[in-house]
Every structure is written in structure tokens, then in C-alpha cells.
Specification:
The protein is an alpha+beta fold. It folds into two domains: 171 residues, 2-Layer Sandwich (Ribosomal Protein S5, domain 2), CATH 3.30.230; 129 residues, Alpha-Beta Plaits. The protein is built from ten helices and eleven strands. Strands 1, 2, 3, 4, 5, 6 and 11 form a seven-stranded mixed sheet that branches. The chain has a four-stranded antiparallel sheet with strand order 8-9-7-10, with helices on both faces.
């Protein structure tokens, strides 16, 4: 069936899961980006509208991740038709929630539908990465979970390098996002250029413990591994306002562990029940409320579906 208009949704994601820098990611329920894509007569891609970004995202199609992702797909198949893209941002910018990844993914997924779905969902990964690379480089730790859902191990940027991991049955999350921006490029720039042999051994061991804990569904062991980062969190901690205070508040409210969502400033607390996650969300928000810093908080779970088509005509 031929379509001229498609609307898609792509969920938020958090990368790293603490110790797994650039190699682990998780999709999140309840928030994400939407895009509406239509063919038009001109051979150009036009960003017709963006809602929810406060006017901050570029409308130039050469500089917007959604249009770059769509262009990569069209160029790959040699399709010369033009597109109109409307982007509805449900994710804050530079928040550690995979905002650019979701926009890159949602455009490719919607366009794929318009084209009659010539690509399976995993095989859209290269086109999504072209959009993501525009702002944060070629790494799939946000793109892959947003596209495919679940928890993913990302051993590279090709489809065969992406491995879905099991989702522990009792895994719940509480998130808090203070109203400060931490651009990914800036957060990457402050990371150490070199690590010692001791640090490498420690870090690889912690990643192995994390993956093992996921497979066993052991949330206590998972939390311990998430907080066992000796390289990235120490370098970035100063970018996260009230990090130590939020961790203390989260654990007092019942959280197992707390880690930085990607580049931050979103903080993610690992919990074992919905009621605990709700309490932890409130407790973390109170930390920022006490100092007059605006923030958003919520409790959520792992999004198992990934990006999806919401309407096509």
C-alpha cells in the first residue's frame, strides 16, 4: 500500500548505564519525539515546523538531525523526491535522554513507512546514525535502544554489532532532570584521553558484572556494577548539579543505585518496585526544589517496543 503521509514515535533513551560508556543503552517508556513526514513536489527536504524546542533547533535541513537522517535514507535508495518534516519534540535538549537520537530515529522510521518499508527496523540503523553523528558522533548507544527498544549492548555501529539484552522483570527507574543543559560534545571533551592499566581492568570487569547481572535479573548486583565507574562519572560529576545529594535522597527513599543518564544532567535511579520508583522520583525532585532549581522527575520502565508508526495515510 502506498502512503503519502506517515507519523512515527521514537522513545527516550539513556546511555552508558553507569559503567558501560558508549556500549550500553536503554529505551525509556513515557516520553519521546514524534515526526510527521510527507512527500512533496519539490526535490528538497523542508523542515516545516518544530514544536517543543523553544526555537532552539535549526530549521536548515542540512543542520537538523531529523532531515539529515531522512536524506541519508533517500540518497541510499536513489529517491529524488522531496519531503516535508514536522518534528514534535517531547524530549528536552542536551538532557542525557537521547534527544538527538530520538529525532534521528523517528524521521527514518516515518520515511521508511512512506517508502513501503524497504528496510527492516534494525537495518535503519545506518541512516539514524548519520543524523546522530551531526551533533554527537558515530555511536549507537542512544540510537539503537530508541530504534529497537529494550536494553542493548552496542559493540560497534553496524547492525550485527547490536545485541539485545534481557530486561529484568522487576526493573523500575526514577528519573530527575534539572534545568541545566549538558551538551554531549562538551561532556565528551572533558573525559581523560588515557586510562591506566588498572583502570582498564577495573572498568572491563565492572561491565562484565553488569551484563552478567542483567542476564541473571539480579538488581542488587546490577546496581553495584552501575555505580562502579572509575573513569567517566568522576570526570563528569561536577557537571551534574546536586549529584551527591540526589544519590543520598534516592537511596534513602529505597533506590538500589543511581547513575548519570548519558552525558547528563538526567540522573537515573534503579529501583525494584513501581511504588519505590515513584517515591524516589519525589525524593530526588525535593533536592532541587530545596535550592530553587527547576527540574522534571518521573518514574518509568524500560520501553520494550522502540520506535513505531502511529499513523499512515
Amino acid at each position: 500500500m502506498a502512503f503519502t503521509r506517515a507519523e512515527a514515535y521514537a522513545p527516550a533513551s539513556v546511555a552508558n548505564l553507569g559503567v558501560g560508556f558508549d556500549i550500553l543503552g536503554m529505551a525509556l517508556e513515557g516520553m519521546g519525539d514524534r515526526a510527521i513526514i510527507e512527500f512533496h513536489d519539490s526535490p528538497k527536504i523542508v523542515i516545516a515546523d518544530i514544536k517543543g524546542d523553544g526555537g532552539k533547533l535549526p530549521r536548515d535541513p542540512a543542520e537538523n538531525v531529523a532531515s539529515v537522517s531522512a536524506r541519508a535514507l533517500l540518497d541510499h535508495i536513489g529517491d529524488k523526491r522531496g519531503l516535508t518534516i514536522k518534528l514534535i519534540k517531547g524530549l528536552p535538549l542536551a538532557s542525557g535522554l537521547g534527544s538527538s537520537a530520538a529525532s534521528s530515529v523517528v524521521a527514518a522510521v516515518a520515511l521508511n513507512k512512506l517508502l513501503g518499508e524497504p528496510f527492516s527496523r534494525p537495518n535503519l540503523l545506518p541512516f539514524c546514525l548519520e543524523g546522530e553523528a551531526l551533533v554527537s558522533g558515530y555511536h549507537a548507544d542512544n540510537v539503537a535502544p530508541s530504534l529497537l527498544g529494550g536494553i542493548v549492548l552496542v559493540a560497534g555501529i553496524t547492525v550485527d554489532a547490536i545485541q539485545s539484552l534481557p530486561i529484568p522483570a522487576d526493573l523500575h527507574l526514577a528519573l530527575v532532570t534539572p534545568a541545566v543543559q549538558v551538551p554531549t560534545n562538551g561532556a565528551r571533551a572533558i573525559l581523560p584521553d588515557k586510562v591506566s592499566l588498572r583502570q582498564m581492568i577495573h572498568q572491563t570487569g565492572a561491565v562484565a558484572q553488569l551484563v552478567d547481572a542483567i542476564h541473571r535479573g539480579d538488581l542488587e548486583a546490577l546496581g553495584a556494577a552501575m555505580e562502579n565507574d572509575q573513569v567517566v562519572e568522576p570526570a563528569r560529576a561536577h557537571l551534574m548539579p546536586m549529584l551527591a545529594e540526589a544519590r543520598i535522597a534516592a537511596k534513602r527513599a529505597g533506590a538500589i543505585a543511581l547513575f548519570i543518564g548519558g552525558a547528563g544532567p538526567t540522573l537515573c535511579a534503579l529501583c525494584d518496585r513501581k511504588t519505590v520508583a515513584e517515591s524516589v522520583s519525589v525524593a530526588m525532585k525535593s533536592v532541587y526544589d530545596a535550592v530553587g532549581m527547576p527540574c522534571d522527575s518521573l518514574s518509568t520502565r524500560v520501553d520494550r517496543r522502540g520506535a513505531l508508526i502511529t499513523e499512515a495515510s
